[in-house]
Amino acid sequence: MKRLFSILAITCLMAIGTVNANATTLATTTATITTVTQSAEETTSEDLSFHQELKKRFIEGGPGFMGIVLLCLILGLAIAIERIIFLNLSTTNTKKLTQNVEDALASGGIEAAKEVCRNTKGPVASIFYQGLDRADEDIDAAEKAVVAYGGVQMGQLEKNVSWISLFIALAPMLGFMGTVIGMIQAFDKIEAAGDMQPSLVAGGIKVALLTTVFGLIVAIILQIFYNYIIAKIDSIVNDMEDASITLMDLLVRHKK
Prior knowledge:
Elements lengths: L1 H59 L2 H28 L3 H15 L1 H9 L4 H11 L5 H19 L3 H33 L4 H58 L1
């Protein structure tokens, strides 16, 4: 009997140990799954935090002024992209065009050179065509035509660029106006509450300053595009001036 009780006691202890071990393993597995789930949720929240934060700040700044500043950004970027595409299409290999015109003048005369210009895109080719079209009169007439049409081409290159500069100046001004109006509203809330609570003042000032920050960001973005466009226009205008001088030299040599 004593041996039987001993065997039963040992069996009970082993069973209890097995249950405890299974419980510990289950708890460890549950904790691991919970940790992995929390990590996944944190990663997802980090991935979406930028867009959520941007949306939150935009709403806090007020849809009125923030919407107008956003409209300035959209219109400014649309005009800037259109100008960049136009200027890139207007860029011409001036040396190659000049060489082709010179060869055409030597082989086929004025009409052959005009045909080369007609088949070439860009303001330089258009200026060449106008100068060659007046070449039968005299050199002075050709030079006047080149200068006059050069001004026309420059106007086309600078078309709508002034709107970008307007949006650059307008965006921060609207932001400052939103800040001033937000400050006035904050002080109105303080007056209505009858007590200058730090949380009330800080909340109003934070919302007011968001419009200024957003306006400055819009101005910085548009300023980068504006400077690139101005540099591109200057480069094309310099090519036009050099090509005009070269064309006059070609016409003088052809007249001889």
